[in-house]
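Notes to self after the Tuesday call (sharing in case useful).
The group wants a holo model before anyone commits to mutagenesis around the pocket. I volunteered. Ligand is heme C. Logging inputs and output together so the record is complete.
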Amino acid sequence: MNKLYLWGIIFTALMLLFTYMSVAGSEGGLNDDIVNILAIAGAVALVLISVFVVIKYVRQMQTDTADGQLADESWDGIGEYLNEVPKGWAIMFLLTMVWGMWYFTVGYPVNAYSQIGEYNEDTAAHNEKFNAQYASITGERLVEMGESVFLAECKICHGIAADGIDGKAANLNVRIEANVVKHVVENGSNNSLLGSEMPMPDRNGLFNNNTGALITDAEIDAVSAYVANGMSGAGADVFAGTCAACHGEDGKGMEYVAPSVATFTPELVTNILNHGKKGVIGEMPKFDRLNAKQKEAVGAYITSLSK
Ligand code: HEC
Ligand code: HEC
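Result:
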């Protein structure tokens, strides 16, 4: 017998066996369950037809020879038959082109319905509703809303207690820690903390006006401790002489000049959420998916933590 038929029969038998096993093994099995019996009959038909069709075409590939008249040209021994384009194929080709034009213009016009468009419209509508509903929230309720946003979006890095999980992210219960201040004073900072690019110079641009010289290592340590202590202790004179010109006497910052290093503010947090932040601790991603009110709320929550 032809090897091909032998493989066909083996394959068919195997497929039928697997089908039988999976149906008979299932709940109800073949015991007068008409649906299962129909399913098996369908599967048997599919297997038989598939095997028959595959065998037919493989046979044809093995035995067929091409016929017809060859064109005069020959490309390195590869010729071309002068056969007519099959009618069925040509009709299908034309119909496909007509269907394609219909699809783009009438069926699913490029500028009409799309799932992404529907999603965007729904999102915009929801945001409008959200803003209308929550625009007037202030005070305690805003802080509560911020806490929910924090627990959903921020605790994975900053921790449930917002303590930064042992240095994995910034500790938000204090405005700033000494090692962060020190790093910024030594290296400068360019994180758009004011909302737009306004870098702070590094130590080579920081003069202590009391001494008239560039800030020293000892002064950096002192001023870092001073800022981290909530603007108290030694280092006050360095701050007054070097930093106050931009950050203000009380460290609360000046609009368009420098951010507050004494307290968090909702604006500062919003700027951090809009631009992300890179520093000595690591990198915080920006949060485009929060809307303005959510940013304000989480800013109010964080501001409330360090008071
Ligand atoms: C020339 C003005 C200027 C001076 C002087 C200056 N700063 Fe700044 N500082 C800035 C600006 C602007 C930023 C915001 C930079 C940014 O967007 O990343 C900043 C940011 C900071 C930050 C980062 C805050 C954060 O949340 O990461 C700290 C800390 C800081 N300054 C501390 C100091 C200290 C301490 C001094 C004095 C030794 C000082 N700065 C002097 C302008 C100044
Ligand atoms: C992928 C981790 C990650 C997530 C999520 C994250 N943060 Fe941060 N965040 C950081 C890191 C790391 C820093 C410290 C950056 C640096 O080195 O100064 C930081 C810093 C901050 C600061 C700046 C503190 C400072 O001293 O200036 C604020 C404010 C802050 N995050 C708020 C948030 C809020 C609000 C969310 C949630 C909406 C959030 N973070 C989500 C990692 C994260």
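Two things stood out.
The mean pLDDT is 90.
The pocket of heme C (ligand 1) is lined by residues 176, 181, 184-185, 189-194, 198-201, 206, 215, 223, 227, 242-243, 245-247, 258-259, 261 (CB under 6 Å).
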